[in-house]
UniProtKB/TrEMBL annotation:
It comes from the Bacteria. PROSITE patterns: GST_NTER (PS50404). CDD domains: GST_N_Beta. This is Glutathione S-transferase. Coiled coil: none annotated. The keyword Transferase applies. Residues 1-83 form the GST N-terminal domain. Keywords: Transferase. Pfam families: GST_N_2. GO terms for molecular function: transferase activity.
Length: 209
């Protein structure tokens, strides 16, 4: 195997890694599957990733990586000119690491936990209130990111992978319109990514159907 293979699903967090691979200039194939649907695709995914989640990245040597932030940091090491992360000597490096981990450990789970409330065996009459409560909490979490964000990129003039997360995750519940109303700086960052010819086709394919 001479290139990466990204297993992903339409509109999911795997889109962040697809964009990162493009930014890095890495050779890769995309295998887009309905990752929650039973069948051979999910069976193969479970063999590679016991959690059955995307993104799952098969490395050129056949090893497997999961967890989007880990993949991002790997790609930054493998492709040092990619600008996915600030250099270790860059003054923005601590802020980048802080907010990257904040997004993937706080906001991202708040999205997935409320996508399918039935998985928690909640009574049907409280699933909608549960989803609303978690969605409101997620918006509070995004507020902290908005408060510290710079423009035109999250780190000011310096692009980083955080911009890719914002560009993708703003499409998730409660949706792009509500996100734009609440978070103008983050919306500007997301639009700047969406308008970049390197990324525009991928984002349109995933979110403008």
């Amino acid at each position: 195997m001479s290139k990466y293979v990204l297993i992903g699903s339409q509109g999911c967090g795997s889109v962040v890694v697809e964009l990162a691979l493009l930014k890095a200039g890495a050779e890769f194939d995309l295998e887009e599957i309905p990752y929650l649907e039973p069948g051979p695709d999910r069976d193969r995914l479970l063999e590679l990733n016991p959690l059955g989640q995307v993104p799952t990245l098969i490395m050129p040597d056949g090893d497997v990586m999961t967890e989007s932030a880990a993949i991002i940091l790997h790609l930054a090491d493998a492709f040092p000119d990619s600008q996915l992360t600030p250099a270790t000597s860059d003054r923005h490096r601590p802020a980048f690491l802080r907010w990257l981990i904040y997004i993937v450990s706080e906001i991202y789970p708040a999205s997935t936990f409320s996508d399918h409330p039935d998985r928690w065996n909640l009574p049907s009459d409280i699933q909608d209130p549960y989803k609303q409560t978690v969605d409101e909490y997620r918006m509070e979490l995004w507020r902290h990111v908005e408060d510290v964000a710079d423009t035109p990129c999250f780190l000011g003039n310096d692009f980083s992978a955080i911009d890719l997360y914002i560009a993708v995750m703003r499409h998730w519940r409660p949706g792009r319109k509500a996100f734009a109303k609440a978070f103008p700086k983050l919306t500007e960052i997301g639009e700047n990514v969406a308008n970049d010819p390197l990324f525009s086709k991928v984002l349109k394919r995933n979110f403008d159907r």
